[in-house]
Amino acid sequence: MVLASTSKVVLGCVAFGIFWVLAVFPSVPFMPVGRTAGSLLGAMLMVLFRVITPEDAYAAIDLPIIGLLFGTMVVSIFLERADMFKYLGNLLQWKSRGSKDLLFRVCIVSAIASALFTNDTCCVVLTEFILKVARQNNLPPQPFLLALATSSNIGSAATPIGNPQNLVIAVESGISFGQFLLGVFPAMIVGVLTNAAILLCYFWRYLSVEPTDQQERGAANGPEVVADDEVTSHRFTPARMSHVSSLNPDDFDCVSEPIIRSASVNASVNGDLRSRSINSEADMQFSIKSLRSSSMSHEMVEVSTVPAATLDGASSRKFTRTASQQRSVIIEDAPPSPPDSVAADGEKDKELPEVVEKRWRVLVWKTAVYLITLGMLIALLMGLNMSWTAITAALVLLALDFTDAQACLEKVSYSLLIFFCGMFITVDGFNKTGIPNTMWELVEPYSRIDSAKGVALLGVVILILSNVASNVPTVLLLGTRVAASAAAISPASERKAWLILAYVSTVAGNLTLLGSAANLIVCEQARRAQFFGYNLSFWSHLKFGVPSTIVVTAIGLLIVNSY
């Protein structure tokens, strides 16, 4: 393809340059509008500059990819509501044998979860939990945060639904879910194990320090500070997760201050004030029922037993501590006579079936979510259309929820879908200038995948371009060209070229903190975590990311190329 006219080339480069700046640096001082607005601006300029016609702009939007993204977002939202990621978090601590075992588990669990539920979702829901575990065990958070971010990126390379660039490759190449999995999964497993080994070697001395020594070292060094401009608030999350629904009530520690309100008795209160927390689910259900009778619903409660001297003798009262408003309200008086006690016990026994019935409903609903998700994965492995399979699973989940779908659909990251639409138009307009094709013609003779040197050079080109232009635009720019070059060798080589592009463009995100949205999510979530906050700086990530990315990419290229 020859270059277009000079005016079209110049204006197309201007439009693409604006898109690139806002996509890589969404908070630039002269136009801090973010990635989504930047992609729309680039698309609009391509049409206004007549680099691309309005009809071609609409045709450039790849609806199957948009549909696949939307479907996986909705499924991820339901999995989060069904406590899937809470169970994964509990798996990290189950019979843990120390800090090194915990680090290895973080690598394995985050990699597998990312392959099935996308890397961004995994990082959103696991970052704060991993921080909490590290802080509670007096362990340095940095190795565990790096393990989560890097392993999530590597693990997401194994499936077409692991990350957005794999979705593009799967749709553009026509490679089935099973073929994609067989081609990249071995490289992913070896890459995750290699990354875990590098982490253990890099942080072995820190993970071997006794907890008391670790505390003293942390106090001496002080907290690590990172500038706000090293991270971005524009997160490419597949869904805006709500953590409250998946939290365990036992994680909340309620502190009560016994306040005695005795309006009906005129005696002084003697004795010690003793408070107890709600330790069982049945107690919580009973307290919530009692709280609703006092018009104090939707608040965290705690019951305090107060011995008080009354006219009839010693008795006790139960108080409720509201954590949100820091006050105490009497919800139930102690039984003054046996008949009242019998009535109270009868009322509690009458409420227990409701609790049991609610538990069964929740259990059945969670089972349905897991079965539908499993059915979606089986359908993808069978080679059914990926986009409509994901959309069907999402609609079935919405229908089985038996509630208004608005609350669930509001969690979908529509900004990401809009970003993709604008990016499709912008990249297609840039392709019409002829610049990408001209540059590829210079590199193509030396990057053919029928030789080891060609595979190595292709890997370097993808690695650098993914960190300069981001991985999804890299796939859109190089995908068809790399595939066409490999197709001239053999059909098997074409499929291999697509898989190499998928693996390297994904692992390339581990090179720097800005190389992947998952890295930014972990950094931002950790920085803003309440009580367990930690700042992961750009340089601390770079010192580990460079050697890990080079080694993991080289090993993965050998495995994928031998497929």
From TrEMBL:
Subcellular localization(s) per the UniProt record: Cell membrane
Domain of life: Eukaryota
One Pfam family cited in the UniProt record for this chain: CitMHS
UniProt keyword list: Cell membrane, Membrane, Transmembrane, Transmembrane helix, Transport
Stretches the record annotates as Disordered: 326-349
Membrane-spanning segments: 6-25, 58-79, 102-131, 180-204, 368-400, 412-430, 455-478, 498-522, 542-560
Kinase in keyword set: no
InterPro entries: Cit_transptr-like_dom
GO biological process, one term: transmembrane transport
Transport listed as a keyword: yes
Topology of this chain in the membrane: Multi-pass membrane protein
Every Citrate transporter-like domain range: 31-508
GO CC terms in record: plasma membrane
PANTHER family, per the entry: TRANSPORTER ARSB-RELATED
Full protein name: Citrate transporter-like domain-containing protein
Organism: Lolium multiflorum
